């Protein structure tokens, strides 16, 4: 199996595009660090941690907010940047495009349309809090996978194979966990919270977060890129503290909550 380099500098040095791309990469790294610190102290105020004492702006439909924050940057922006700013593309570039769209069509369009939300409305500030970071990370990832020159034999590269396997595994875990939560709400009603059981829920409180984190780890390895890395770091900066807050919340709310469960990573955390 080959292990050939992927160009780190895709654009002419000192060009506007060079500084925009790598400036946003640096900004993405800083944002990941800030997010980890802030969310470890206080969870983002939605879902289980909703705080009605805080004013996050006008309320909009929850489904619309979810679509705007996820599908707009994850599908529309990604496609636009991939095709407008990309260079000579090979099959590998299109595989990465399909991977990203597979996740965000599901996450940003299908999921909001079929999910039973506990709250019908969400403050627009919460929506924008997800929208703007997503725009940054999805722009640089689309810019990279649309421009990077992958050798034709990259399909056999260990990075690509391992990354694809992790991405697919994480996608399946994430979809299964979300389906399990949706089924629980359909069975018992969407106005409360219940203890989920079965599968990875026997090991961790948030297998949906675990699955998505595995996805983006696979993406970072498969693309072997700085944009992929900072997006994985930002995902971890979101999922690690939030899973810990969710885990603590469940233990406080349910006296019989299984004590052997971890928050995010089976047997570890």
Could you please describe the fold and organization of this structure?
It is found in: Membrane. This is Steroid 5-alpha-reductase DET2. By secondary structure, the protein is an all-alpha fold. The chain has one domain. The protein has seven helices and two strands. Helix 1 crosses helix 4 (124-147). The relative contact order is 0.15. The model has no long low-confidence stretch (mean pLDDT 92).
Could you provide a short overview of the structure?
This is Steroid 5-alpha-reductase DET2. The chain is 65% helix and 2% strand.
What is the residue-averaged pLDDT?
92
Helices and strands, in order, run as HEHHEHHHH
End-to-end Cα distance, whole Å, is 34 Å
| Biggest sheet layout | 2 strands, antiparallel
